Each structure stands twice: as structure tokens, then as C-alpha cells.
Amino acid sequence: ANVKLCVGVERLDYTKGILDRFHALDELFTRYPEWVGKVVFLQVAAPSRGSLPAYQQLHDECLRYAEELNQRYGTNDYSPLLMVAEHHSQEQVYEIYRAADICMVTSLHDGMNLVAKEFVAARDDEQGVLLLSTFAGASRELLEALIVNPYDTAMTSEALLQALTMTPEEQRERMRPMREMVRDNNVYRWAGSMLLDAARLRKRGDLDRVTGNGERPSNNNVISMFERTRKAVS
């Protein structure tokens, strides 16, 4: 069967727009019922802060909505929405990216968002479609992605339809420049640019004003700041 696989991969967090993409899938099936049975959405949601009531509530809401969609559109042999709330290794996530026809990153507000770049980096076959929130920092770099406002369910469902019907040739035309961007602007180049900027500031005598504490940080301190920032953007 020619079933399209759409994936979302992130920690279970209210900022990631997981419920919003479920609504978009529901909207797709409502407006284009011919796609029922031809699309499976796999949501990998690593548990996050499960001891907090708000996060447990989000987990329960996502599971409940998934069950509703599966009851409404599913059959004994077909479940349109699969939600896996557990951690996966990087190797497992890579295989998911490679198997996917579409990757949805519909953050409601986010930093750079590494998932979008990881999906692109995994696709050395230059296939697959990235559907990316305008509120993710990566949308300013991955311009060939299908950019959406995740608060606009109709817009997101139409972008999902566009992704489902995109030809292999257009997928390649979009994926190739994104892969080049990811390759040329990796984390090491970012670190290097930070160090160069710090050196320029030091040369001009502006670093004290930037740090705000009257101390001139060493390169080691700048690297430490960079490492903390890199962990924060995922």
C-alpha cells in the first residue's frame, strides 16, 4: 500500500505545537477524505517534566485526541495517528527521519530548533518534505521548507496536502539547498563566529559593556557560554 508517513519528533512540551498538528491532520481528513487510509502520522514525544501537572495534562490531551482521531478515521487495519511517548536513541530517530515522507516542526515559539536541521541532515537521498513553523528560528535559514503558522489550522492542513502531493523532483529542488545550508552553517562555524565576534569586541574595547559585569571573559568562558546556548536551542 502506498501510505505516506508523516512524523513529528520532539520532547512532550506545550511549546512544540503537537496538538496543533493533530488538529491539522484532522482538518486534512475533513476537507480531503480521500486521504484517509493513505496517511499515517507518527508522533514521537519524549516525556518531559512528567511530574508537573501541566505536562501530564498535555500528555493526556494528546493521547485522548489521538484516540478520537483513530476512532473517527481508523479501521481494524489502519490507525492514522500513532503517538509514542518514550525516549529514542539518536540512531532510532535517524531511521525515523529517513523513513518519513514529511517531517512536521510546528513549534508555537522556539529557538533554532535542531529537529528541522537534523531531518534535513539525515536526508542524503534529497527526498522528504519539511513543514516548518514560522515561529522556529530555523525558518529564517531553511527557506525551502513549507513555512506555516501553526495557529492557522487551515493553512497547516493545506501545507500538509502540498507536502503529500509534492513530486520527487520538487522535493529534491527544495532539499538540496537546505542540506547545503545545514552543511555550511554547522555548530562549529557558529562557535567560530562567536569567538571572532568576541575578539572584535575585545579589540574595540566594547566587551565590558556587552558582558555587563566589568569583566573580560576569556575564550574558554565564551566557549562555555556557547555550549550552554547549544544545549538550550534543542
Task: Summarize the structure in short.
With 234 residues, the protein is α/β, with parallel strands linked by helices.
Overview of this protein structure:
By secondary structure, the protein is an alpha/beta fold. It has 2 domains: 4-184, Rossmann fold (3-Layer(aba) Sandwich), CATH 3.40.50; 187-232, no CATH class. It is built from 9 helices and 6 strands. It has helices at 18-31, 53-73, 90-99, 114-122, 153-164, 168-184, 187-204, 207-211, 219-232; strands at 4-11, 39-46, 81-84, 102-105, 129-133, 146-148. Strands 3-2-1-4-5-6 form a 6-stranded parallel β-sheet, with helices on both faces. β2 (39-46), α2 and β3 (81-84) form a beta-alpha-beta unit. α1 (18-31) runs parallel beside α2 (53-73). The chain is globular, with a radius of gyration of 20 Å. The two termini are 35 Å apart. The model has no long low-confidence stretch (mean pLDDT 85).
CATH superfamily of the largest domain: Glycogen Phosphorylase B
Structural class: alpha/beta
Give me the number of helical elements.
Answer: 9
As residue ranges, the low-confidence spans are: none
Quote the CATH topology of the largest domain.
Rossmann fold
Q: Could you tell me the radius of gyration in angstroms?
A: 20 Å
Strand order of the largest sheet: 3-2-1-4-5-6
What coarse outline follows from CA principal-axis ratios?
globular
Give the C-level CATH assignment of the largest domain.
Answer: Alpha Beta
The H/E string reads: EHEHEHEHEEHHHHH
